[in-house]
Amino acid sequence: MKRIFFAALLAWMTAALSLSAQTPRHPYLLYTPQRIEQAKQLMKDEPARKAGWEAIKQRADKALEGGNRLDESEYLSLAYLMTGDKRYANKQKAILLDVIKDRAWSSSEMLARKPVWRADLNVSHRCRLAAIAYDAIYNILSRDERKEITQGLYRLGVEPSMGDWLLEPTRIHSLNSMGHNWWTSCACMGGLLALSLQTEVPEAREAAKVLNEYLPEWFDFAGDVLQQKPKSFDRSGGMYESLNYANFGIQEALLFRLAWKNACPGQAQPDIPQLNQVADYFAHVCYPRTGMLYSLNFGDSHKNVSAESSLMLLDALGMKSRTGLWYMAQVQGGQHRDGFFLDRPLGFLYMPSLKQAPDEPDMACSQLFADFGWATMRTSWQKDATMLAVKSGHTWNHSHADANSFILFHKGVDILKDAGNCWYPNPAYRDYFFQSQAHNVVLFNGKGQNREQQYHGSMLPGSLHYLTDAGRLRYVLANGTGPYSDQFSRNFRHFLWMDNVIYIIDDLKTHEYGEFQWLWHPNGTWKKNGTDATVTNGASSVVIRPLYPRLLALSDFVHDYPEDLWWEEVKTPDEDLKGEDSYYSFHLPGKFDRVKGLTAIILKDSASQRELPQMERREGKDWIGLRVTYKSKVTDLYINQLADGRLMHNNSWIEADGWSTDAYLFAVSYPEDGDPARSEDVFVAYGSALRRGETSYFSSLSKLFVAWKAEKGRWNIHIDGQPRMHATFGCPSRPATLQVNGADHPILYERGRLEVRCHK
Question: Where are the beta strands (DSSP E) in 314-450?
Answer without folding.
Answer: 366-369, 374-378, 387-391, 405-410, 413-416, 442-444
